[in-house]
Amino acid sequence: MAIEYREWREGDDLTLLEIWGGPETEQARQFRGALAVSSTGKDGTPWRRCVVAEDVIDGVGIPVAAGVVYEASLHPERLWVYIEVARDHRRAGIGATLLTMLRREAEQAPSGVFKLRAKVQPGSPGAAFAEEFGLKPIQRSRLVVVEPGALKLPVFPAKDDGGRPANDENAGSDVVMDLATGSVELTDVVGRYYTSIHGWDSPGVLSVGQVQKLFLDDLTGAHGAIVLRAEPASAFGAGVAPSKKGRIRAFAVSYAEPAQDPTAAAPAQENQATDVFVGHEPALDADDAAAAVRDLLALLAYQHPVMLELDDSMTALRAAVEPLLESGKAHQQGTDTLVVSD
Which residue, 134, 161, 190, sits at the end of a domain? Predict the structure, then answer.
């Protein structure tokens, strides 16, 4: 076996897909798309270096492996790296050589950043490779489905409508509200929450536009938001209706399901879980944040299942969800995803 290395060329993706077959993990499915022609980063595209390993047989090189390292505008303190080797060419030093080459390329990144990060599935060949070469877990992420009625609904006090008798029918109407995904108030709290839970891999300074593009734009599939507010207080005391809404304590953004493939054999499930992003005002203390998230999640999953991404850094959400996992009222979908770094 004679292995030679070269820059990625147009058409390598099709050749490698024939050699590799289907992706072994969800991480492979996601990162295969990052394999592309190298870029200097000066034409508006992120800086990227991509290398292909060829097995040369009778003077003809057949691509069998590839690796890429690239800058990211979000979480700019590390470079993403991805390496894949054909199954029948593993344990032959090809992945190690690609990683060494990519580390050298990383030293030339325009940003001056050279630390690497990758996503792996525990127990996979990729995870074993990462561990062997010193990439250690810095975060764990899980997809969790919360079953309908898993949490007891919160009880809200009856609304005191400007001194008139409290109205039970309106209880909670000034606390639980729909909010447009374009709301500046929502954008602000979503951005600050995302930053607060990523101290392990800083996203940098997020602008309003970036938060909208990442989480709230129509292109993300965001199609609705609900917030849980603090009880509004009147500046003139009891008996006088408050003039301002209470601050946001927790939020949830729901995302539309992708359009169904009309040629798909299996129809979509009627009670399919809704994908939601749940968070809270970062300034809340731990107990208040946990209570706010739990109450909002109870409302979201009252009649229909919801699916959410649960990172270990999301302490308030973990406080609500992990007891449900233990009791069987929620279940994990798929395997863990580990972010590893050197």
Answer: 134
